[in-house]
Specification:
This protein has 202 residues and is mainly α. The protein starts with a helix and ends with a helix.
Length: 202
């Protein structure tokens, strides 16, 4: 009960704070807090609950950010459709990356996923015809306010919490604690590892 109260008060504080200040700096910091909280929640699924050593979460973030921006500027899509398409693309990217890499463990998985993240960074930096290089994509519609970002972050955390405390989450914890025992119990370990990558990626 006490922990839930602290969480609720924290959320209310973050929602009300932008209304109490006109500082663009404060609003920028709050926006980054929201983004990093969402990224960390995905990383928590892969590293925390399934026990994988993934350092490539920024690569998935890069795919999501640029694909969403390009859908808005090049295809004229509004915020919600582009967001849903971005979720699908990130999940697909997580699936593609997980198939070859999850045959590795520990330090080797960390190195491969870090390499993927660096590959995405260099692609975004050097594919200037698509991403406009270091200057970034211009003309992105300002549809996503801080309040909108808050709402989506809260929705993300609620969905992930439901997953974590479901049978899916129990299976991930079982794999994390003892992968061999999970396999002996009939759990398809590789399948659930792939699923955790897909969920964590989007």
């Amino acid at each position: 009960g006490h922990k839930k109260l602290v969480v609720v008060l924290g959320i209310l504080f973050l929602i009300l704070l932008p209304q109490l200040t006109t500082s663009n700096y404060v609003r920028g910091v709050l926006a980054r807090i929201i983004v990093y909280a969402t990224i960390a929640s995905g990383l928590n699924i892969i590293n925390g609950y399934s026990g994988q050593s993934c350092l490539g979460i920024v690569g998935f973030t890069c795919i999501g950010a640029y694909s969403g921006a390009l859908m808005s500027t090049e295809l004229g899509m509004t915020f919600l459709p582009s967001l849903l398409c971005t979720i699908v693309l990130c999940a697909i990217a997580g699936f593609i990356v997980s198939i070859p890499t999850l045959k590795l463990n520990g330090m080797f998985l960390s190195i491969i996923t870090l390499g993927f993240s660096e590959m995405m960074r260099l692609t975004a930096l050097n594919w200037q015809d698509l991403t406009n290089g270091p200057l970034g994509i211009k003309g992105i519609p300002g549809e996503a306010t801080l309040l909108t970002c808050y709402i989506w972050t809260v929705i993300t955390l609620i969905v992930l919490a439901r997953l974590i405390f479901s049978n899916f989450g129990n299976v991930l914890r079982c794999i994390r604690d003892n992968e061999i025992a999970a396999g002996v119990m009939g759990i398809n370990v590789f399948r659930y590892k792939v699923l955790s990558f897909c969920v964590g990626a989007f």
